[in-house]
Design a protein that fits this description.
Blueprint lengths: L6 E3 L19 E10 L10 E6 L5 E5 L5 E8 L1 E8 L6 E7 L7 E4 L3 E2 L3 H26 L2 H14 L4 H13 L3 H14 L4 H13 L3 H14 L4 H13 L3 H14 L4 H13 L3 H14 L3 H18 L1
Parallel strand pairs: 2-8, 2-9
Antiparallel strand pairs: 1-7, 2-5, 3-4, 3-6, 6-7
Helix pairs in contact: 1-2, 1-3, 2-3, 3-4, 4-5, 5-6, 6-7, 7-8, 7-9, 8-9, 9-10, 10-11
């Protein structure tokens, strides 16, 4: 006795066929096939029509799945079959099944589960893919300086899904780039509501609040950035600046030191830490940080500023 396995071409499909009685076919009823049709959440799909066409004889068979999504086909003759799985509201599935070896007795074959996806879900996936593509294009436009083009693309995306966090984030960046800070704040605030654990949105929100002169809101946004991403050197630097400018020097120094723990050669962090040390009359530490900042920068204007800070600090040490 020989047992042939089922060979699939393309996606796996399931088959449950009720054969009509026919004496001429009785001796060839060699395969007993069972399986299920499910949705993407693995829930059974009843009422699915399964059609089978014998390629060589053009005989066709069909059956409908039961409430458990199950199908079975008893007595299928050997042959090559084209299979189509259909249900209203779902995308159809097609496959080719090969049961080419005659069997002396009934051979049971369990077919892998068939998964049918609803047309609504397919349309949603297509919409999301289109939105993702448009958002990537908008991000490229922002990087190239085409802010108006980016904003137009993102507004189109948001017409279809007003809560698309990615589109809202880049829209906020586009508005910020054009100095339209109130609109940027509106977009970025929505991002922090939809995706509250995304540190980038809080950071950019802090940037916008700072430009609007709302320093406490900016500081709160940077604090949230650091809660979510303690290694954010930019969050440490920006929050440290606000603290320094509002005469909270000790707190500012702690922020700059935290930033330096992540980026020890960052000229901006080194300079601001040095300025804090000057305010604390710790001039040796100030000079050390200024000199490190000078060694780490290639900006001629920054070098000039740091040389002057070093000169003044050393003069005060005499």
């Amino acid at each position: 006795m020989r047992h042939d396995s089922v060979r699939h071409v393309g996606a796996a499909v399931g088959l449950g066929v009720l054969l009509l009685a026919s004496p001429g076919l009785a001796q060839h009823r060699e395969y007993y096939i069972v399986g299920r049709v499910l949705d993407p959440e693995k829930k059974p799909l009843p009422g699915v029509e399964v059609r089978l066409l014998d390629v060589s004889t053009s005989r066709s068979y069909h059956v409908t799945t039961d409430k458990k999504g199950a199908f079975k086909l008893a007595g299928l003759p050997h042959g090559v079959y084209e299979v189509t799985i259909l249900k209203d509201g779902y995308t159809s599935r097609r496959d080719e099944w090969k049961f080419e070896t005659p069997q002396e007795t009934m051979q049971r074959v369990e077919v892998p589960d068939v998964v049918l996806v609803s047309e609504a879900r397919v349309q949603e996936v297509q919409r999301l893919e289109a939105a993702e593509s448009a958002t990537r294009e908008a991000a490229d436009k922002i990087r190239s300086g085409d802010l108006d083009g980016a904003i137009g693309l993102l507004q189109d995306v948001l017409v279809k899904n007003p809560r698309d966090a990615n589109a809202l984030f880049f829209l906020g960046l586009g508005y910020a780039g054009k100095k339209r800070y109130p609109e940027a704040v509106e977009a970025l605030s929505q991002v922090t509501e939809i995706a509250p654990r995304f540190p980038g949105a809080h950071f950019e929100l802090g940037v916008c609040y700072r430009h609007l002169g709302e320093l406490e809101k900016a500081l709160a946004a940077y604090d949230r950035t650091l809660e979510l991403d303690p290694a954010s050197a930019d969050g440490a630097y920006n929050s440290g600046l606000i603290l320094f400018e509002t005469n909270r020097v000790d707190e500012a120094l702690r922020r700059f030191q935290a930033g330096l723990a992540t980026k020890p050669d960052d000229p901006g962090l080194l300079e601001m830490a040095g300025r804090c040390y000057v305010n604390q009359a710790k001039l040796d530490a100030a000079v050390e940080h200024f000199e490190k900042a000078r060694a780490a920068t290639q900006d001629p204007a920054k070098v000039e500023t740091l040389d002057e800070l070093i000169r003044l600090a050393r003069a005060s040490m005499k």
